[in-house]
Amino acid sequence: MNNTEDIMILAIESSCDDTSCAVLKNTVVLSNVTANQSIHEQYGGVIPELASRDHEKNMLPVIDAALKNAKVSLADLNAIAVTRGPGLSGSLLVGLSTAKSLSLALGIPLIEVNHMQGHILAHFIREQLPLAQKAATEQAVPSFPFLCLTVSGGHTQIVKVTAPLEFELLAETEDDAVGEAFDKAAKILGLPYPGGPLIDRNARSGNANAYRFPMPKLPGYNYSFSGVKTAFLYFIREQTARNPDFVHEHLPDICASYQAHLINYLLKNLEAVSAETGIRQIAIAGGVSANSALRAQLSELGRKRGWQTFIPAFQYCTDNAAMIGITAYYKFLAGEFCDLNVVPLARYSL
Ligand code: KG4
Ligand code: ZN
Questions:
Q1: Is 193 in the pocket of ligand 1 (CB under 6 A)?
Q2: Is the CB of 290 under 6 A from ligand 1?
Q3: Share of the chain above pLDDT 70, in %
Q4: C-beta separation of 340 from 103 below 8 A
C-alpha cells in the first residue's frame, strides 16, 4: 500500500543509444530497465537515425517491464519524468513524446530533466532493501557543497554542486569529451564501439608506463582531448609502419598507457580545483566513471589528499533512467513541472 506522502515517479531516458525506464518511490529505485542498442557497434559510433528507430521499437516494452518489475501500475504514478537534453534530437523526441502522452493520458505532471544533472544526482539514488539490511549497507552520500567530475561520451565537466538543484560549472572540455578520447582510440585499435570498456578491460594486464603521450597545456582548469587523440593516432601509425603486428602484440600496454594518461590528466585538474575551492567532498559520474582504473586512482588520491570520495554504483554510471527519476524527485519537491509544449534541447547547459 502506498503512503499518500510518497512520490512515485516513472522516468524515461533516451538521449543517446540506450532506451531506459525507471520507477522511483521518493529516492528509492523500484526498477530500472535499459535496452542497449548493439546496431551501432559495426559503425564505430552512434548513428542518430538508427538510434531513434530503435528507441521507437524499445520504448513501450521497456516501460512495461519497468512497471512490472516495480509492481506498480500507471494509476499509482504521481509524475512522469523525461530527459530533455543534451543529446540527439531525434532520440530525445521519442522519449519526450512518450512522456507527454503518458502525462496527458494520466492527468499527472510532466518533469523535464537535464541529463548531466541526472548523472551527478545519481549519487542520491537509494536501493530498495529489507529493513534489516538497510542500516548495514546504507551508502554515504555527498554533502553540499561537493565537486563532481562528470565524464561521459559527450561531456567532461567539473561541477560545484551547492544544493540538489544548484550547479556551477567550474571547468569543461574545450573540444572532445574524455569518453570520445576512449572511443576514438579504441576505433583506431580496431575495437568495436563503445570502446571505453574494452580499453579498460585490456589495460588490466598491461604496463601503464610502457608509452608516453603529451599532456595538454591549457590555462585554467578546462580540458582538451583532441590533441591527445591525434597524438595517439600518429603514434599507432608510426609504430605499425615499423611493425604491422604492433597493436596485436602490445594491446594491453597500449591500452594501459593511454588510459593512465587520460586519468592522470582528469585528476590533475580535479586536484587543482579542489585546492582552489577548498572543497574535499569529491564525486565522479557519467559513463567513464565506470572505468576501473579511474575508480581506483580516485580512491587512492582521495586517501592522500584527505578527500571523501563518492563513486557511483556501476549501473548508475552509464546512461540510465533512475538518475532522471532522482533528479525529477527533487524537481517535484521544488514544484518544477513543465508544459506539454516542451521541446528537446540537443544542447542544454547545467
Ligand atoms: O554517460 P554515458 O553512458 O553516455 C553519455 O552520456 O555520453 O557515457 C558513455 C561513455 C562512452 O564513451 C563509453 O566508452 C564510456 O562512457 N565508458 C567507459 C567505460 N564504460 C563506459 N570508458 C572507459 N572505461 C569504462 N569502463
Ligand atoms: Zn550520459
A1: no
A2: yes
A3: 97
A4: yes
